[in-house]
Design goal:
Shape: elongated
CATH superfamily of the largest domain: P-loop containing nucleotide triphosphate hydrolases
CATH class of the largest domain: Alpha Beta
Number of helices: 11
Number of domains: 2
Distance between the termini: 64 Å
Structural class: alpha/beta
Order of helices and strands: HEEHHHEEEEHHEHEHHEHEEEH
CATH architecture of the largest domain: 3-Layer(aba) Sandwich
Helix content: 25-40%
Mean pLDDT: 82
Number of strands: 12
């Protein structure tokens, strides 16, 4: 098999770099941009027909300011990492794109003579991570703890919050399960949508199906009009089912369908409704032990 030559490798690498999400910029030692991939321009908010020309624009500094000085100043607020061929400086920069703040993590280095004296800069969008970290910091202020277990729990919340995964919180009464459920919602992409709380233990068994799934007029004695349930009220947001172990067995299959398919029928109706919700549940009992029993 024939080994590709340097030109073929260059074309291959350029093709690969053009499809990655991270921005890649190569510049000469004076800051003039030699190459950048499409992601770099997009991350910096540059127009499609307006290529990047200078690292001064990337760093947000004037043309008469030294690139070395700007990077040295940025490094003091960031971190440094040494590899065999380069010394990387990592720092963050806040920019405004289309009127909205965007946080970029930049990795910059000057390559050695072995690969040609150029400046390499890698850009990564960390806006979502920055948002979550800010919310986590504010939320930790509510808890005020140095307990390792609680801090580990907050880290787990940080990990699970951005997803749409259903969550089960288990713990004794008074341990803050409701607070954690609210925190997960606040850190999620559904934060601006409803957060609906239901204490399953506080609703009579005869009413809980109607309370959760709603009912139509005439579904039972006293049902004088259509009434939406808590699942519909939480559409687009999060439904928190506290004391989930108190839900009667005959409703668990219907609840499972909502968890799996996000569909249900209100009491007395044959019309299937679809909802876009995330479900968080909580219990002061060990549900696995209850199932095994």
């Amino acid at each position: 098999m024939e080994t590709p030559n340097s030109e073929q490798l260059r074309v291959l690498l350029e093709a690969v770099v053009s499809f990655i999400d991270e921005g890649v910029i190569v510049a000469d030692l004076d800051g003039r941009v030699i190459y950048h991939n499409p992601a770099a321009a997009a991350l910096l908010g540059a127009a499609a027909n307006q290529p990047l020309t200078s690292l001064h624009d990337v760093l947000g500094i004037s043309r008469d300011q030294s690139i070395d000085q700007a990077l040295a100043q940025a490094a003091r607020g960031g971190s440094a990492e040494t590899t065999e061929l380069t010394d990387f400086v990592r720092f963050q920069r806040r920019i405004i794109v289309n009127g909205e703040p965007r946080y970029l993590e930049l990795h910059s280095c000057q390559t050695c003579e072995l690969v040609g004296q150029t400046r390499l800069m890698i850009l990564r969008d960390v806006t979502e991570r920055h948002r979550l970290e800010m919310l986590i910091d504010r939320s930790r202020g509510d808890l005020v703890t140095s307990d390792r277990k609680v801090l580990a729990l907050l880290e787990r919340v940080h990990q699970v919050a951005p997803s749409n995964a259903s969550v089960l919180l288990q713990g004794e009464s008074g341990t803050g399960k409701t607070h954690i459920a609210r925190l997960i919602h606040r850190l999620s992409r559904r934060a601006e949508k409803p957060f609906v709380e239901v204490n399953c233990a506080a609703i009579p068994t005869s009413l809980i199906e109607s309370e959760l799934f709603g009912h139509v007029k005439g579904a039972f004695t006293g049902a004088m009009r259509d009434r939406p349930g808590r699942f519909q009220a939480a559409h687009g947001g999060t439904l928190f089912l506290d004391e989930i172990a108190e839900i009667p067995l005959h409703l668990q299959a219907k609840l499972l369908r909502v968890l799996q398919d996000h569909e249900f029928e209100p009491v007395g109706s044959d019309k299937t409704l679809a909802v876009d919700i995330r479900i968080i549940t909580a219990s002061n009992q060990d549900l696995r032990e209850m199932v095994d029993a």
